[in-house]
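Reply to thread "Modeling small-molecule complexes from scratch"

Following up on the discussion above, here's a worked example others can learn from. I took a protein sequence and the SMILES for NAP and predicted the complex. Inputs first:
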Amino acid sequence: MKKLGFLGAGNMGGALIRGLIEFGAIDADNVYVCGHHPEKLRAFSKELGFHISESLEQMAKDTDAILFAVKPYHIEAVLEESGNCLKDKIMLSVISGYDFDRYEKLLPPSVRHLYIMPNTPSSVGEGVLMFEEKHNLTESEHAWVFDMFSKIGSVFTLPSRLMPAGAAVAGCGPAFIAMVLEALSDAGVKYGIPRKTAYALAAQMTLGTAKMQLETGLHPGEIKDGVCSPLGTTIRGVQALEKAGMRSAFMDAVDAVMQYGK
Ligand SMILES: NC(=O)c1ccc[n+]([C@@H]2O[C@H](COP(=O)([O-])OP(=O)(O)OC[C@H]3O[C@@H](n4cnc5c(N)ncnc54)[C@H](OP(=O)(O)O)[C@@H]3O)[C@@H](O)[C@H]2O)c1
């Protein structure tokens, strides 16, 4: 069994560590984690059973592959200081915007690397894991990573040019959908539903609608039409959402993400 290290265990790194261990994709004994502040990791390590590494250099000695989950503005300084320890290793990265071509200019030539854009629902086994098509892992290394990540969600392979849009839709998407859950729940609370019940209603409805689309392959518009009977109540709500610019608000949200750094 290969050993996997994580540099950074914040929101995304932490979600992946939790998902991979809790869904049996990797044994906790084969997981090493290096954080900026190792003391912050102790409770997390106690809960899941992974090893804490004191430095990236030490973690590179103890593992076969390292997944980078630090903020984009940290990565280049980290690689400048310690990039040499990655020689001959597998490097996985979930850092937004750092794709294969960008890493080719930053990493020692012997590093085999793959850019993965995940999302936080990976922690509960329902993630979206977008693998960049371009990589230089061997076939068996790629199969190992693919199988491991398939245990915490659905893996999609995307050409490099579509990784930013995939990141905006499915990487940022959990934040957008959580806002929808919160807003719909607020509306329920306004009409007397206790807050906790309102969250449960909205979340289960969202889960069910998504599952229905995935399992039937129905056009989302058909699912909407199936709820809107003539002279009914739902179509009035649909009109109110259209008036409020709901569709263009979501498209604007993705535009805003895509404009970042340009
Ligand atoms: N959040 C998401 O939903 C999501 C989705 C897809 C991709 N991503 C990508 O995931 C990466 C991390 O995002 P995040 O939301 O998880 O950020 P975050 O919560 O701030 O986590 C980053 C972690 O990296 C640690 N860190 C910083 N410098 C380090 C170093 N030199 N050595 C070891 N650890 C270091 C930080 O530790 P301290 O806090 O102790 O400084 C922090 O725990 C980003 O590049 C982002 O593009 C995030």
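What I'd highlight from this example: The first strand starts at residue 4 and ends at 7. Strands lie at 4-7, 31-34, 51-52, 65-68, 90-93, 112-117, 127-132, 153-158. Questions welcome below.
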